[in-house]
Amino acid sequence: MKSLKLINGNLEIIDAQKPVLKDAGAIIKVIGCGLCGSDIVKIREKDDRAILGHEVVGEIVEINTKTDFKKGDVVVISHHYPCGTCEYCVRKSYSMCRFFKSTNLFPCGFSEYLYASEGHLEHTTFKVPNSFKYDHIAFVEPLACCIRAVERADLIKDANTLTLGLGSIGLLMAQASKNFGYSSYGFDIDSKRQESALNYGIKFDENIKYDAVFMTSGSHHAIPTALKYVRDGGKIIVFSSVKGDFGYTNNDIYYRELSVISSYSPSVDNLKTSYKMITQGKINLDNISTTYGFNEVVSALEDTVSGKIYKAYIEL
Ligand SMILES: [Zn+2]
Ligand SMILES: [Zn+2]
């Protein structure tokens, strides 16, 4: 079967062995998979060990489980789930759980078939409602990451939030914040993206002091922008890796009593909330993904990096 892999740092479609169902779990025939920003970072780092693809939509073709899933179900599934009992899990730092980091889909999300464990079926798998758009339901995991960030910001009822960077994640973040009842705004240095964000109900107001700024941009230039617009006493939520050594200076944080926190990956509860928000139609997901064939994955990558598209959904 066909599977995507980095070989000597190059993206290649290889002929891999189809996974077999030995223990509990399921074999999933992949229908499509979103190309995540974190996949792009791994591809750029030329990390041959990287397991690519975790925003998977697929059909269960073989199953051995105690869950309610059955053969023929079309599901959306993501890669990591925590152990629930370690020193990190009891402190709710689920994505720091060593077990969480070790879990994954096998061999990867960009494969004709993959093996999902019983734990994946229990914690990270959801049934796709009939006739729901596959490239829309594939947003369950990325939106869940945003939901976690909004929850971690822990804001007062009438808070104003600003999302910096209005790419696919920015559009989700700003909408997630709105769903929590906050006044949600967004800013992008690209005026076209700023304008397109209006289609998702997102605008920018430079006269507001923001209680929280969500950093979805991977550019260090967003840091001074965050410091400019965050209210004294406000919170900056780091949500993206930035290449190089950049950060917030001690005195910004001290004199303005700022909180700089981060949010990385979702919890199991965040995935559930995300699935509900999406299937209840609370997030506008129109025209965020662009669909590519499996053999077009390199152009999908290039178009995402160049900003030609927001996000790629790869059909297997
Ligand atoms: Zn993702
Ligand atoms: Zn744990």
3D architecture notes:
With 316 residues, the chain is α/β, with parallel strands linked by helices. It has 2 domains: 2-139 and 288-315, Medium-chain alcohol dehydrogenases, catalytic domain (Quinone Oxidoreductase, Chain A, domain 1); 152-262, Rossmann fold, CATH 3.40.50.720. The protein has 11 helices and 14 strands. The strands form 3 sheets. Strands 3, 4, 5, 6, 7, 13 and 14 form a 7-stranded mixed β-sheet that branches. Strands 9-8-10-11-12 form a 5-stranded parallel β-sheet, with helices on both faces. Strand 13 (289-293), helix 11 (297-305) and strand 14 (311-315) form a beta-alpha-beta unit. The longest helix is centred in the middle third of the chain and has 14 residues, at 140-153. It is globular and about 60 Å long. The termini are close together. The mean pLDDT is 97. One zinc ion (ZN) binds at residues 36, 38, 54-55, 141-142.
Based on the model shown, name its key terms.
316 residues, alpha/beta, Quinone Oxidoreductase, Chain A, domain 1, Rossmann fold, 2 domains, 5-stranded parallel β-sheet, 14 strands, 27% strand, globular, binds zinc ion
Would you summarize the structure shown here?
The chain has 316 residues and is α/β, with parallel strands linked by helices. It is built from 11 helices and 14 strands. Helix content is 28%, strand content 27%.
Topology of this protein?
Blueprint: E1 2-7, E2 10-15, E3 25-35, H1 37-44, E4 55-64, E5 74-77, H2 98-102, E6 113-117, H3 118-123, E7 125-127, H4 134-137, H5 140-153, E8 160-164, H6 168-179, E9 183-187, H7 191-196, E10 210-215, H8 222-229, E11 230-238, H9 250-255, E12 259-262, H10 268-279, E13 289-293, H11 297-305, E14 311-315
Parallel strand pairs: 8-9, 8-10, 10-11, 11-12, 13-14
Antiparallel strand pairs: 1-2, 3-4, 3-6, 3-14, 4-5, 5-7
The structure holds zinc ion (2 copies).
One zinc ion binds at residues 82-83, 86, 88-89, 97, 99.
